[in-house]
Amino acid sequence: MLNSLLDGLGILGTSPEMLAMFVGFGLVVGVLFGFFGMGGSFLVTPALLMLDYPAPIAVGSGMAFVFGTAIIATLKHHDLGQVDYKLGVIMITGTTIGIEVGRASVYYLESLGFAGGIISIAYVVLLGGVGAMVTRDALKGDGGGGIDHEAADKDLSEYEIPEVAKTIQQKVRIPPMVTLRGDVRVSAWVITAVAFATGLLSGFLGVGGGFIRMPAMIYAIGVPVPVAVGTDLFEIVFSGGLGSYLYGQGGGVDLGIVAPLLLGSALGARIGSAATAVVDADGIKIYFGGMLLVGATAVGVGEIGSYIGNSTLELLGLVLVIGAAVVVALAILYTAISSLRVTHRQQTSTAD
Amino acid sequence: MLEGESMAGLEIPTWDPETALLIGTILLEAVVLYVGYGGLERLFGPYLMKLLVGGEENAQ
Question: A187 - beta bridge partners?
Fold first, then answer.
């Protein structure tokens, strides 16, 4: 009975060695996700592609993994009171409509022959704009530019609202007004407009949208950073769930991949987020950047390998992707344990 | 209630019990893992921390 169920769900289609490897990879990805608050899941799809899984399974299973990870992360942020469901529901509605309009505009521009050029320009403006805004904020002081996933100790009302958001809150007071977590009072129309705009961009550029949505919630609506993170995760549960369902219908979600990955990553995420309490993230951010670069190179190397039919290059690509992630995860663990020991030793000597 | 026949250009999801079961399984696994690992952390967390932090002293 159990066998037939597991078989039907695809678990038994994966060999025990592969299952163990997925749990291990999930653990590494989880540590990275827990520590940096992002950037584990996008390693999964390239790794699956390099393992010779067909593209729909690599993308579909990667998306299902994101869905599972988002559920776990949302539950955690819910426990910390950092998910604003009211904001989430309004955002989901606006985003969905925006995505559809964005997609329709791509087809329209394509028919006019302008799509490629306009999309590239939109990318440059958007990434440049977001990057400049975050960097300016970070340079202005108190290191507030980063997305702090673990700022649980700080009271939500203590978060400083960016000037842009303050101006919008004061000037646009079209009812109905909505009170959000952290005592932010804003017009529902502002939220809908932000959601629609981010959805439009996301549908237009074909990206998940988290990297647009989060800064938009912080800078345009004035939501405290932890709430923006928690609410964004809540949205990902929906978009990831819908995406996984659509891929699943075409046989793109392999439970034999997703289940062991989640098993490892849920544990890794706990370890990673516990490490943020003792390790200064700024010091490790440089490794993170390095890991992304190595990952990008690895995907390129693997792609060239498969193009020219060189299996050694393909293998090298895979080893680089997984290796870079493992090295950064180990660096986090090593630094966390070392700094814990130093603190412990200092406390012991003070007590003496 | 029919299974989705084509993936090409699929925009509105059609009801498919098998896929719903698959996605439901992932959802359930995620919740079980969150609760399960949470319980394990509460049970063994302090012991593990002592082991990791005090490891050097124990070795001496």
Answer: A177
Rounded to whole angstroms, the Cα distance separating A344 from A280 reads: 17
Contact state of A75 with B10 under an 8 Å Cβ cutoff: no
Is residue A315, in this structure, part of any structural domain at all? no
Give me the pLDDT at residue A254, please: 92
Select the residue of B23, B34, B56 nearest A248 (Cβ to Cβ). B23
Q: Where is A186: in which H helix or E strand?
A: strand A184-187
Look at residue A179 and tell me if it is in a domain.
yes
pLDDT at B10 over 70: no
Residues A337, B52: C-beta atoms closer than 8 Å:
yes
- CA–CA distances in Å: residue A109 to residues A63, A101, A112, A204, B8: 28, 12, 5, 10, 21
Q: Could you tell me which of A293, A166, A143, A278 has the C-alpha nearest to residue A221?
A: A166
Is B55 in CB contact (< 8 Å) with chain A?
A: yes
| Boundaries of domain holding A137 | 84-229
Where is pLDDT greater, at A273 or A19? A19
Give the nearest partner residue to A266 out of B10, B23, B33, using CB atoms: B33
pLDDT at A28 over 80: yes
CA distance B59 to chain A (A): 13
Structure confidence at residue A173 (pLDDT):
77
Beta carbons of B37 and A266 less than 8 Å apart:
yes
The whole-number pLDDT of residue A221 equals 86
d(CA A284, CA A280): 7
Subunit contact A263:B33, Cβ cutoff 8 A: yes
Number of domains within chain A: 1
Where residue B60 falls among pLDDT bands split at 50, 70, 90? very low
Domain locations in chain B as residue ranges: 32-60
Q: What is the ipTM of this complex?
A: 0.76
Angle in degrees, 0-180, between the axes of helices A55-79 and A16-36, rounded to the nearest 10: 50
Looking at beta carbons, which residues of chain A come within 8 Å of B9? none
Q: How many CA atoms lie within 13 A of A158 on its CB side?
A: 7
A59 falls within a domain: no
Do residues A226 and A151 lie in contact, with contact meaning Cβ atoms separated by under 8 Å? yes
